[in-house]
Amino acid sequence: MAKPSQIRVFEVACPDCSAILRIDAETGLLISHTPAPRKRTFEDLAAATKAMREHEERKESIFRQSVEAEKNKSDLLEKKFAEALKKAKDAPEGRPLREFDLD
């Protein structure tokens, strides 16, 4: 067995997660893994609070829009139905022509 002073170890930074990997040169096995330090999402508590308020306002706005859309849904569906009925009356009667029938 090799003495601790004779062991060759490589330290490699992971290109994906920036973790530090210690690898034994002789065997190529991983000796240790040191995870990369986590990045802070916000610099301070005030910024985090502001982001949270903006997120809540955005959720509330989306909810209000969905309520308004639901209120007008029946009118929209009636208009779509009337338009489809009008198209069906204007369409020629009989079976539609297919490319196969034209040969």
Automatic annotation (TrEMBL):
Keyword terms: Coiled coil
* Coiled-coil boundaries: 38-87
Name assigned to this protein: 2-nitropropane dioxygenase
What is the scientific name of the source organism?
Acidicapsa dinghuensis
